[in-house]
């Protein structure tokens, strides 16, 4: 599968955005788990 340069750049930036948001996502998941356990 050949990936063009523009596609590579696009995927690269997408990855950067994802990894920049990863800590926030992890925090959100932890909070959701805590509230879920409390509600049970």
Provide structural commentary.
Keywords: Mitochondrion. The radius of gyration is 17 Å and the shape is rod-shaped. 88% of the residues lie in helices and 0% in strands. The chain is mostly helical and 40 residues long.
Taken from the alpha-carbon principal axes, the silhouette is rod-shaped
Strand count, sense and closure of the main sheet?
A: none
Number of domains: 1
Cα end-to-end separation: 48 Å
- The total count of strands amounts to 0
Q: Cα-atom Rg, whole angstroms?
A: 17 Å
Average pLDDT number: 88
What is the chains' assembly state? single chain
Q: Give the topology string: H per helix, E per strand.
A: H
The helix count comes to: 1
Low-confidence stretches: none
Structural class: mainly alpha
**Which percent range describes the beta-strand content?**
under 5%
Task: Bin the helical content.
Answer: over 70%
Keywords: Mitochondrion
Please outline the helices and strands:
Blueprint (H helix, E strand, L loop, with lengths): L4 H35 L1
Task: Provide keyphrases for this structure.
rod-shaped; mitochondrion; mainly alpha; 40 residues; single chain; 0% strand
In summary, what is this structure?
With 40 residues, this protein is mostly helical.
